Amino acid sequence: MNTLQEAAKQNCYDRQRTAFDPIDHIVEYLWFHNPKYPERMKDYKSIYDVAWIQNYLKNNPRPCYPFHLIWSDEFAALKIQSFMRGYWVRKRIEVQEVRNFWKQLKEESRGSRTSISQRFFMMD
């Protein structure tokens, strides 16, 4: 698959920034399709899983882009949905009671210098 086809597959024409890097794609293709090393094609993986790439990136880390620039629309929707589900659960009265109980127990254990587990078993 050539780089333009991969860019279309990654939705690069619709977004200004994506996780797709065409240079990385070309390096990956050339590394694994080198006719001098046909055994590499059998062990095809992401270019970031190759040892010399990992060593290079340890010494020369890349800048981090904000998530909204590199996440796909589907992944961003999944993150928003999971956040909202968690918010709605934490908002429930019975969950708030449990959270307040543990918060109060933690504060009391700080004052008495006993661990939370010791305080919890003292309550019985």
UniProtKB/TrEMBL annotation:
InterPro entries: IQ_motif_EF-hand-BS, IQCK. PROSITE patterns: IQ. It holds the Pfam family IQ. This is Uncharacterized protein. It comes from Cryptolaemus montrouzieri.
